[in-house]
Amino acid sequence: MVDKQGKKNPLTKADKKQNHRLSSSRVMIENVIRAVKIFRIVAEKYRKRRKQFGLRFNLIAAVFNLNINIK
Question: Taking the model in full, what pTM does it have?
Answer without folding.
Answer: 0.52
